[in-house]
Write a structure and sequence with these properties.
The complex is a heterodimer of chains A (about 190) and B (about 575).
Chain A lengths: L1 H32 L6 H14 L9 H24 L2 H12 L3 H11 L3 H11 L5 H8 L3 H20 L7 H14 L1
Helix pairs in contact in A: 1-2, 1-3, 2-3, 3-7, 4-9, 5-8, 6-7, 6-8, 7-8
Chain B lengths: L2 H8 L13 H10 L7 H6 L9 H11 L2 H12 L21 H13 L15 H14 L9 E9 L10 E9 L5 E3 L21 H9 L8 H18 L4 H12 L5 E7 L5 E7 L8 E6 L5 E9 L6 H6 L2 E15 L14 H16 L11 E8 L2 E7 L5 E6 L2 E6 L18 H4 L15 H8 L13 H13 L7 H10 L5 E6 L5 E9 L2 E8 L5 E6 L2 E11 L13
Antiparallel strand pairs in B: 1-2, 1-8, 2-3, 4-5, 5-6, 6-7, 7-8, 9-10, 9-17, 10-11, 11-12, 13-14, 14-15, 15-16, 16-17
Helix pairs in contact in B: 6-7, 7-10, 8-9, 8-10, 9-10, 12-16, 14-15, 14-16
The chains are: A mainly alpha (about 190), B alpha+beta (about 575).
């Protein structure tokens, strides 16, 4: 019994360190990808729940980051599936857009980002925002470093085109199109 | 426009205040993660919302603190530093000096028709332009290529050049690896981009007429494309087909014809690809809304060599300024070497496609490693309830993750039995013989600790040492049974190990693949082992390639449902499933 207790303490100690180190990155990861900021806590909690339960599988640093983002990706996919089941996504989108979009130049880019293919957008976000190397991003996405580089390139080219195209008024129709796109890909 | 700075600046995590791991919120999430109840009711309710947008000033202050300073520095340093442009001397449009022999064109046309491409050859006088001539040469070269099956392996050495990578990342990279012709399975560091548009399965139904193909591809990126988008979409679609797959020769011949008739397309006869090879390129010139694109062919073989995209040579603020800047390559990917091979790992040319068994093993490996995962994750102390369907009826059995305890209903009474107890002899264990749970479940890496070998011959040798009660020992029956035992009787495998098992199964002499309908009526596909003392099968789902069960001694066992429960006899799900 005593050995068990000892094991649990050691485990928790390790998890505690892991949590302190990665809490903010996981939070930022979620903020970048959820439709509604109030969902961030749920996503973060689910990622760390998985980490706690699979702590023995978590590789040592620096690979732990890759493991964590890979897990976060799956958690988020589940999250979207759940949201879709509940049919909430479309009705909620307008509030979420309002809460996220404040600065017009950044808004344009975020909207443009949503028009990319899922794999291309993720590659771009993981390298630019999560600051993973190409190889690390590849591990998270299940593809090679080169595939990440090519996806990033395609994403950048498409972004440039979308941003250069004349702006259309952002109607409810466009927002719904973006949402339905996102739900298909997630 | 400076796309890098824009992307960096748009990071939502820089505009939303994040809290730190010491915050009350972080504490609540922590407790929730490790399964301890939150401190109070209030805390329980508060997980609804953590990021409350504060007033502008406070938010801005926290924002500044939360922005990753390293990211910022990285980008700006990267943007300031000189951007090397690989010298690529050009002679504009002077490639074809001597008229291309008409006979060759006729033969290409004939071949196109024979190859199921209904080539629309102009009936009016043919105006020979450089782009049409280049297309004909490329088509002719394509038609000399063999037709390969979707699962054929291809070895590739790819060189890529991305001059505007954030600082600290190499601008040129060489990747080598193996990929199937359809881009579905990969090994090594050159991976398929996957999810290509058009998809491999769509290739067979594409219009068999170059103009119609362009028109079809023009609408791939959305309805009502503007004129510049049409050309760009067609060009991109073709580029994706050429880079993502090994195309059927007739289709490859067709796409070059389709390239040549995209409005505005030009030929550049003196291109040097990043690997130094001389090339000739189909060029889609820049427009006010889009950048220049190139598809480069080898100058002597006319086979696909590289794709490149151009853009402003340095950061610029608006479209007018950007257009005035000298253009530079933004990205180039060159296929330095491509060999059709018999199997991943080989670099020897071979047209032998992989066997059905090898392909199934790859699919099962990919499913367990990447797409579906290795099954449920069960915490120590929890139980797993398995609904089994067999040829003689359905039962439910409960077991611990390591299969050391088991329970089932006997004459209406729940009987729980530890493996060490006397009752164990009369119980049918799902994991009767094979590697220990410590080996199966070893953390990775686990230096010095128990683990399963990760080379296939060693793994096979080890698994053959267990006595699983079969007679065809020379035929590797013990190894096959040990794998069936582990898959059905244990949970929480070490990362990556189940993938190896399937690859190993494919190496066992005599194994075949069989389409099956399992006892529950589901379509399945099986590894089938004709052992001297009877047939053993390992059953997989025909679409997900997850293991569903096995057949041994004529008895089929399919696990129809696995539920994590708190103890024997319970069917109520507990804990997370993956």
């Amino acid at each position: 019994m005593l050995a068990d207790e000892d094991g649990r303490l050691q485990r928790e100690h390790r998890f505690h360190q892991f949590y302190e180190e990665h809490y903010r990155s996981v939070q930022a990861y979620a903020v970048r990808r959820v439709n509604e900021l109030s969902d961030v806590a749920d996503v973060v909690a689910d990622v760390f729940t998985a980490a706690w339960r699979r702590l023995d599988d978590v590789p040592p640093p620096p690979a732990d980051r890759v493991w964590l983002y890979g897990t976060a990706r799956r958690v988020l996919a589940d999250h979207y599936r759940g949201a879709r089941r509940r049919g909430k996504l479309i009705s909620r989108i307008e509030t979420s857009q309002a809460s996220m979009l404040t600065d017009s130049r950044n808004d344009e880019l975020l909207l443009a980002l949503r028009q990319l293919k899922d794999g291309e957008r993720e590659a771009l976000m993981l390298v630019y925002w999560e600051q993973l190397s190409l190889a690390e991003a590849g591990q998270v996405l299940g593809c090679s470093a080169n595939a990440v580089a090519i996806r990033m390139h395609r994403a950048r080219t498409r972004l440039r085109e979308v941003l250069a195209a004349p702006r259309e008024p952002r109607s409810r129709g466009t927002v719904e199109a973006i949402v339905s796109f996102k739900t298909h890909r997630s | 426009m400076d796309i890098d700075a824009l992307i960096a600046a748009a990071d939502p995590a820089r505009r939303v205040p994040l809290d730190d791991p010491g915050s009350a919120q972080a504490d609540r999430i922590y407790r929730r993660a490790i399964g301890q109840p939150p401190a109070g009711r209030e805390a329980a309710r508060s997980r609804r919302r953590i990021l409350v947008p504060g007033n502008a000033g406070a938010a801005a202050a926290r924002l500044a603190a939360s922005a990753a300073p390293r990211a910022e520095q990285l980008f700006h340093a990267g943007l300031r530093e000189g951007r090397p442009v690989i010298p690529r001397p050009r002679n504009p449009l002077t490639w074809v000096r001597s008229p291309w022999r008409l006979g060759a064109i006729v033969s290409v046309a004939a071949a196109l028709v024979a190859g199921m491409v209904v080539a629309v050859l102009p009936s009016a006088p043919v105006v020979l332009t450089a782009k049409l001539l280049l297309a004909d040469r490329a088509s002719a070269a394509a038609l000399t290529q063999p037709t390969v099956s979707p699962g054929q392996w291809v070895y590739r050495v790819v060189e890529s050049y991305h001059p505007f990578m954030p600082k600290g990342m190499p601008k040129t990279n060489t990747y080598t690896g193996w990929e199937t012709a359809d881009g579905g399975e990969t090994y090594g560091d050159y991976g398929s981009l996957g999810g290509g548009d058009p998809s491999y399965s769509e290739l067979g139904s594409l219009p068999r007429n170059p103009a119609a193909l362009d028109a079809y591809l023009a609408h791939l990126n959305g309805p009502n494309p503007k004129p510049f988008q049409k050309g760009l979409s067609a060009f991109r679609g073709i580029e994706e087909m050429l880079t993502n797959y090994v195309l059927p020769p007739a289709l490859e011949a067709e796409v070059y014809q389709a390239l040549a008739i995209i409005p505005g397309i030009e030929v550049d006869s003196h291109v040097t690809a990043i690997d130094g090879q001389a090339g000739v390129a189909f060029v889609l010139p820049s427009t006010p809304q889009s950048e220049k694109q190139e598809i480069i062919l080898d100058a002597s073989s006319y086979r696909f060599l590289a794709q490149a995209s151009w853009g402003p040579g340095r950061p610029c603020a608006n479209r007018r300024l950007c257009a005035a800047l000298p253009q530079a390559i933004q990205d180039e990917t060159a296929v330095v070497r491509m060999v059709i091979v018999g199997a991943p790992g080989s670099t020897q040319p071979s047209l032998t496609p992989p066997t059905a068994v090898e392909l199934l093993a790859e699919q099962a490996d990919r499913a367990v490693t990447w797409t579906v995962g290795p099954g449920p994750f069960v915490l120590p102390g929890m139980w797993i309830a398995r609904k089994l369907a067999t040829s003689s009826g359905d039962t439910t059995v409960w077991a611990t993750p390591d299969d050391s305890e088991q329970a089932s209903y006997v004459n209406g009474k729940l009987q729980v039995c530890a493996r060490s107890a006397a009752c164990a002899k009369s119980t049918q264990w799902l994991m009767p013989a094979g590697p220990s749970y410590a080996q199966f479940n070893a953390p990775s890496p686990n230096p010095g600790g128990p683990t399963l070998p990760d080379t296939l011959p060693q793994l096979l040798a080890l698994l053959n040492t267990y006595r699983t009660g079969c007679a065809d020992v020379a035929g590797d029956c013990n190894a096959v049974n040990a794998i069936a035992n582990m898959i059905s009787g244990y949970v929480n495998p070490a990362i990556g190990t189940p993938g190896n098992w399937f690859l190993m199964l494919a190496d066992i002499p005599g194994v075949t693949v069989q389409r099956v309908t399992d006892v529950t009526g589901q379509a399945g596909v099986a590894f089938r082992f004709p052992f001297t003392d009877g047939i053993t099968e390992i059953l997989l789902n025909a679409s997900t390639y997850q293991v569903t069960g096995y057949v041994r001694n004529g008895v089929e066992t399919v696990i129809t449902k696995e539920t994590i429960v708190s103890g024997p006899g319970s069917l109520t799900p507990a804990g997370i499933r993956r």
